Amino acid sequence: MLINLLEETVASRQKLRGAIESLNSKKRTHVKLQTKTEHPYVEINPKVCNGSPVIVGTRIRIVDIAIEYEYMNCTPDDIVNAHPHLKLEQIHDALSYYYEHRSEIDKKK
């Protein structure tokens, strides 16, 4: 009886290790999918907004910031007031990224 209990414990631990290893490999895959940019506040992740460039840690697309700036005539300060969880440096970095990649971003609009 004691041997059966020990065997079950060992089997359970092996299953648990396998599950943990599986989760860790999925986490590594998720990190690999993100594309680093030269802009510290911009990221591209296929799992966020269909891979559209966004402000890091948000789902706010760079193109949406550009639209507010260019077509709605909002200043960067106005945009921060409309999105109080964002910082002014994030808005400026988003606009910088937009102007550097304007042609490819405008194609996706």
Strands side by side in the biggest sheet: 1-2
* Low-confidence spans: 28-32
Give the overall form. Answer: elongated
> How many distinct beta strands?
2
How many structurally independent domains? 2
Largest sheet: 2 strands, antiparallel
CATH class of the largest domain: Mainly Alpha
The total of helices stands at 5
Second-tier CATH architecture of the largest domain: Orthogonal Bundle
Structural class: mainly alpha
User: CATH superfamily of the largest domain, called what?
Assistant: Winged helix-like DNA-binding domain superfamily/Winged helix DNA-binding domain
Query: Helical amount among residues, as a percent range?
Result: 55-70%
Strand/helix succession:
HEEHHHH
Q: How far apart lie the N and C ends?
A: 67 Å
Strand percentage lies at: under 5%
What Rg is obtained from the alpha carbons, in whole angstroms? Answer: 22 Å
Which whole number gives the mean pLDDT? 84
CATH topology of the largest domain: Arc Repressor Mutant, subunit A
Structural write-up:
The structure is a single chain. This protein is mainly alpha-helical and 109 residues long. It folds into two domains: 1-33; 35-109, Arc Repressor Mutant, subunit A (Orthogonal Bundle), CATH 1.10.10. Helices cover 62% and strands 4% of the residues. It has five helices and two strands, in the order αββαααα. The chain has helices spanning 2-33, 62-70, 76-82, 88-100, 102-108, and strands at residues 42-43, 54-55. The protein has a two-stranded antiparallel ribbon. The longest helix has 32 residues, at 2-33. The chain is elongated, with a radius of gyration of 22 Å. The protein starts with a helix and ends with a helix.
